[in-house]
Amino acid sequence: MGERFRTRSLVVSRAFAQRSVLTPAPARPRTALVAHNLLLGDTLMLTGLVAKLAIQGVQVTLLASPAAAPLYARRPYGVRVLPFRPADSATTAALLGEGPFDLAVVPGDNRYSWLAAAMGAAHIVAHAGDRPWTKDWFVDGARPYPGQPSTWTDMVAALVEGADPRPYARGDWAAPPFTPFEAPQGPYAVLHVGASTPLKRWPAERWNALAGALEARGVAPVWSAGRGEEALVAEADPARRYRSFAGVLDLPQLWKLLAHARLLVAPDTGVAHLGRVAWTPTLAIFGPGSAVICGNGGFWRDTPWRAVTREAFPCRDQRVLFRREIEWVRRCGRSTRECDRPRCMEAVSLGEVLDAAAALTGIAR
Predict the structure, then answer these.
(1) What is the model's pLDDT at position 344?
(2) What is the pTM of this model?
(3) What is the DSSP string of 115-139?
(4) Is 55:165 a contact under the CB 8 Å cutoff?
């Protein structure tokens, strides 16, 4: 019996048991659960929702991957984070000892409404239209996605009533504790070459050229990538001219590295959103992803974060987000079996990135 099956079994039986005795939802919730299994970037973009609940005096409990949970050690906006990984049934068993909660918000995949019910949520809200219908068995309030372009942060925050929080500002999220490491000295830029799919990777020769251009402007490039992605750095810097942190930093250490950088350049990946939270001047290169959905919107509008992309790329033509078809969405979720190379990433030139860096920081002028 696999771990995911154990997780599912724990949740299903507990969800029915909890909902067999209905507890009325209070008119003004005092506690809220945010239940999901999102990747790092999508999780960080839930911060607007957490902030919105916090200004209403709601104590928020947020689920996050075990790797991401340490980022919340200093409890930004008062949030309490619980580690959750469906492939580890022990994390699910621990969650079932939490609660009850007045409210649960389920962003993205509505299957986690079952987990919210199992954790004793009295009222569960989520976006409408997920498939199959059994995911919505315990959803009490299903709300449509907006009919006009919006960011993921603002879409999720709109699931709850109330005034919007003020925009994110430097210092709203205190840097997490980290294990000391030898950080770079002098002005430096972090070039993060890794991504969740080869279709989000920028060409290695352009990373190499970008590193050389930054060095010529007095900013030392350092490489970043996740564990198992070290070969991407070797491809971008075959002569090993620049220092690499690929595969050696955990997320709190990476925050520390980003926090003192003059610039972060990364594909559309979780690290690009970590740069936004750490208030690092960040250029996020978008190919198949949506720069609209991942953009600054209202909550992040003051952050030094910019998307670099080729607008209206022909095959960025899919309209699906978390299994819902949305008229205004333009993104691409194709696999490497369907697309043989990242043409949309290749369309973003070195000059465009350097121009964006100049406009954002002035270091590449």
Answers:
(1) 97
(2) 0.95
(3) HHHHTTBSSEEEES--SSGGGGTT-
(4) yes
